[in-house]
Amino acid sequence: MSVATPRLLDGIRPGRPLTLGEHLAVHGPPAGIDAAAIIDATDRAGILGRGGAGFPMARKLAAVAGRRGPKVLVANGVEAEPMSAKDGVLLSRSPHLVLDGVVAAATAVGARDAIVCVPADTPDVHSALEGAIRERDWHKLRIRVAPVRAGYLGGEETALVRYLDGGPLKPTFTPPRPFERGVRRRPTLVQNVETLAHLALVERHGPGWFRELGTPTSPGTMLLTLSGALPQPGVVEVPGGTRLVRALALGGSSAADVKAVVVGGYFGAWLPIPAALGLALDEPELAPHGAAVGAGVVAAVPDWACAVAELARVMSWLAAQSARQCGPCTNGLPAIAGALERLAAGRAEPGARERIAHWAGLVRGRGACRHPDGAVRLLSTAMRSLEAELRDHERHGPCDACHHPPVLATPSVEAIAA
């Protein structure tokens, strides 16, 4: 597999990180522009957050820069989305590009402390980062790597701030937001590591260069984790607005044996094939279908998999990830997951599908964080696509495909670059 014009994945080596010398040979030195110029370039480039929410980066930079007192930068590489591997690949193969983005963002907001958060169970990522940090002279910026234990809420910014301050890995009721009062009660920028890597290149090459690829509403490139039942899963770099049919082709699939794609991961949307093939990975085009680019996941659901069993497994996992702080998660998600499990097994009570849809409406928009919202987004889009399969399981019980290994699971993939 290859993609044209790799940027973030340019020059990567299989199985090891780029050294500082190799990194500079590929990307050249940072431009060293000042804080105001960095924020302006970020704004004109239109860099969107790549951690899932797609929030404009320039607005976050300006919000933290405008606060008084010492600032903190948190580079979020926890990658709690189970079907995503892009951040881990980027950190373990091109850590200096992320660190350049850390320096640029710290300059922009006036931070003197930076924390790079990584999953606790990824020693290769931790080792690559620590090695890259030792290769550099940090001058006025204090930086450290913080391992964070696994869990879907580990990537949520208020939970991450709370954890870094010695508390439980659970979201906090807001306000204040981290940009107002975050780590050690200081204004804190929490930014995904892929977003920071894009910033590192915009700081070098400018916003015009960034917009040479992508679309007006999804400029630049993005990293995608191609997973599910694809012959060639991997992390690829594509221009914003790439069509789903192209993404599946990069994974080695003609889409002939795929019945659905999950876009955005477990907080994403279930889109049927062939209707989804012409859709672009661009927010305005995906939004009418209840979808978003999210964490950059495109997972193929094959004809031979039981879609109902896959949905039930994902919803059970998401219910188990609840922080148990709010009723919608503590009670609503387990009730939905249990009803789906019974439906998949042919033990559903009369009216189960209507009840699940009703509960989803009660859960949506009522949590302290976005966990219940994300969970019911996938559920709602799947139920629209799977009406016939759900009815069949409700009437006749499990199908022959129910016992296949999970398709929508954690991928084990490597970066693929031209």
Describe the structure.
This protein has 418 residues and is an alpha/beta fold. The chain folds into three domains: 191 residues, NADH-ubiquinone oxidoreductase 51kDa subunit (Rossmann fold, 3-Layer(aba) Sandwich); 82 residues, Roll (Ubiquitin-like (UB roll)); 92 residues, de novo design (two linked rop proteins) (Up-down Bundle), CATH 1.20.1440.230. 40% of the residues lie in helices and 14% in strands. It has 16 helices and nine strands. The chain has a five-stranded mixed sheet. A four-stranded parallel sheet has the order 3-2-1-4, sandwiched between helices. Helix 6 links the parallel strand 2 and strand 3. Helix 2 packs across helix 5, helix 12 packs antiparallel against helix 15 and helix 13 packs antiparallel against helix 14.
Write the layout of secondary structure elements.
Elements: H1 20-27, H2 35-45, H3 57-65, E1 71-76, H4 86-93, H5 95-109, E2 111-119, H6 123-134, E3 142-148, H7 157-164, E4 188-192, H8 193-205, H9 207-210, E5 221-228, E6 234-239, H10 244-250, E7 258-263, E8 269-272, H11 283-286, E9 297-302, H12 307-320, H13 327-344, H14 352-363, H15 371-385, H16 387-396
Helix pairs in contact: 2-3, 2-5, 4-6, 5-8, 12-13, 12-15, 13-14, 14-15
